[in-house]
Amino acid sequence: MGRAPCCDKANVKKGPWSPEEDATLKAYIEEHGTGGNWIALPHKIGLKRCGKSCRLRWLNYLRPNIKHGSFSEEEDNIICSLYISIGSRWSIIAAQLPGRTDNDIKNYWNTRLKKKLLGRRKGPHSRRSSDDQESNKDGDNQGLSSAAIERLQLHMQLQGLKSPFSFYNHPALWPKVHLPLGESSLLQDQCNNTNTSIADPAMAQQFPSTSIDPPSRHAIDDFAPTQMVPSQDEEQGGMENSANGFMQDEIDELLFGRQGGQEEEVQFSELDCLKEMDYERNSLNWWANNDSDVRSSSNSWDSDSFLPPLDQIFQEYVMGYHVQ
DNA sequence: AAGGTATACAACCGCTTCACG
DNA sequence: TCGTGAAGCGGTTGTATACCT
């Protein structure tokens, strides 16, 4: 027995909103507010709409100060940077772009920005979703979703795939080589030189005002300390659960590489690339582990056992060739 | 001009999270 | 502490329009 539906589906109108419906909803909310109950709202004002539909219409379209129209380059940069760092958490990304809704950003990403940044990765077949889905089915990507691969690709690009000094241009250092953790002197040199900025000058120019490294570095944080393993604080006293405070902390941390309100405890202040190799490998593992497809297929995951598929993904999707 | 295809965006669906009794 | 229902969220679908052949 499933959960009761939120409204009477048979008596609810679906599809595009008419100007009259828009006007009715807008006028009521502007005068009375939502009343804290979206489910009851349509009945109050005589709309044959589901409460959820009213909420969505208001938030995504009717609300004041909603921006419609094209995105600026600055907005592109922010979206790109945050997507690499935190994935498809559109509400958090939208919180950084005043006037933009999560739905708007999600649509913009899926239809335009993703293509702009990634381009077409495979041969002459360029038809959208269906072909992409098919290619995913055909390819043996070992369970990684296209979203994870996209983030992987973007990350690689922004980390400076084209740089002659890049990690990714040194085949000996690619993931197949199982270096012990911490063995990263070459990368340390490289990072000392680049100061962890975007390595490729062309990319740096393309993303002039966006710091890519700190947020993407925090993908690891997302993976291990805060989600997989309770922190000491959590174990001892429980974590802060105030929605606003938590959100702001999370955004601060994602954007600026610090934990909001915790001046004395900056988890990732050491942007010296000392463990760049570990970081890269952990990032790859993080994407894999946090991918819903992977999660659903395997509850217990061991980082070492995941390395071969990642090698394959790295070679096939990022470096652009297949290795037996 | 017509039909097919691609694109953009609005809206829906269902799962998760949260608040409250 | 637990159950319930509303809100929030992200993935997906539907549809109008633009573009191409």
UniProtKB/TrEMBL annotation:
Residues 9-62, 63-117 form the HTH myb-type domain. Pfam families: Myb_DNA-binding (PF00249). InterPro entries: Homeodomain-like_sf, Myb_dom, SANT/Myb. It comes from Acorus gramineus. Residues 118-127 have a biased composition (Basic residues). The keyword Nucleus applies. It is found in: Nucleus. Residues 118-143 are annotated as: Disordered. This is Transcription factor RAX3.
